[in-house]
């Protein structure tokens, strides 16, 4: 029994060392930039307010975990302060409630993971792709309620299963871990 345990452990260590050697850093950076650009374009197409996306999405690799992307959005801006005074926000988003806009962000992010998560080719199957979205409601006066954090996480294996049409989008949505606070 002890010999089998030593053999399995050495096999797993050798396999993980081989995987680390085959990691192409230049390709990985390129894949990260592509996914960041896709998220940026999707958010800008959905939230047309020029001040909705405060910073471009940024990704970070965490060894042993996977990728984490960060996004910060401003929603529900009925008035925008400029050096020339306050202006009315575009009506398309200002008319939607905070709950509707958060629901839209949830749908958009899960669809982004499903459709474009496979662009992260350097990740292993057990690695995760996580998107952390900080959604700030600029009209909320209570500081404890003005920011909602949404954390979406899916394994590379689940993304691949959806890409290969082995699971449906409904099944994929069930497998995406969503934490909201």
Note down, in words, how this protein is organized.
Helices cover 44% and strands 28% of the residues. Helix 2 (25-46) runs antiparallel to helix 4 (98-116). The strands form 2 sheets. The chain has a 5-stranded mixed sheet. Strand 1 (53-62) and strand 2 (66-75) form a beta hairpin. By secondary structure, the chain is an alpha+beta fold. The mean pLDDT is 83. The chain starts with a helix and ends with a strand. It has helices at residues 2-21, 25-46, 91-94, 98-116, 156-163, 169-175, and strands at residues 53-62, 66-75, 79-82, 85-88, 128-137, 147-155, 177-180.
Q: Averaging pLDDT over every residue, what do you get?
A: 83
Q: Which overall shape is indicated by the principal axes computed on the Cα atoms?
A: globular
Low-confidence stretches: none
Question: Which bin fits the share of residues in helices?
Answer: 40-55%
Give the spatial strand order of the biggest sheet.
Answer: 1-2-5-6-7
What string, H for helix and E for strand, traces the elements in order? HHEEEEHHEEHHE
Major sheet summary line: 5 strands, mixed
Task: Determine the strand fraction and express it as a percent band.
Answer: 25-35%
Q: Tell me the number of strands.
A: 7
Structural class: alpha+beta
| Rg calc | 20 Å
Count of DSSP-assigned helices: 6
- N- to C-terminal distance: 46 Å
What labels would you give this structure?
alpha+beta, 5-stranded mixed sheet, 44% helix, 181 residues
Give a summary of the structure in a few sentences.
The protein has 181 residues and is an alpha+beta fold.
């Amino acid at each position: 029994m002890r010999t089998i345990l030593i053999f399995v452990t050495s096999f797993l260590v050798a396999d993980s060392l081989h995987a680390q050697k085959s990691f192409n850093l230049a390709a990985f950076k390129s894949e990260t930039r592509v996914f960041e650009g896709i998220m940026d374009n999707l958010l800008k197409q959905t939230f047309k307010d020029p001040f909705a996306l405060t910073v471009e999405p940024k990704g970070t690799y965490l060894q042993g975990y996977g990728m984490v992307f960060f996004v910060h959005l401003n929603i529900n801006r009925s008035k925008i302060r400029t050096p020339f005074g306050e202006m009315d926000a575009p009506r398309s988003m200002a008319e939607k409630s905070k709950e509707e806009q958060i629901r839209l962000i949830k749908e958009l992010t899960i669809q982004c993971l499903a459709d474009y998560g496979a662009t992260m080719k350097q990740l292993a199957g057990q690695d995760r792709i996580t998107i952390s979205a900080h959604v700030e409601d600029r009209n909320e006066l209570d500081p404890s309620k003005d920011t909602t954090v949404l954390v979406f996480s899916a394994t590379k294996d689940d993304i691949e299963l959806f890409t290969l049409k082995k699971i449906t989008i409904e099944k994929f949505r069930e497998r995406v871990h969503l934490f909201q606070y």
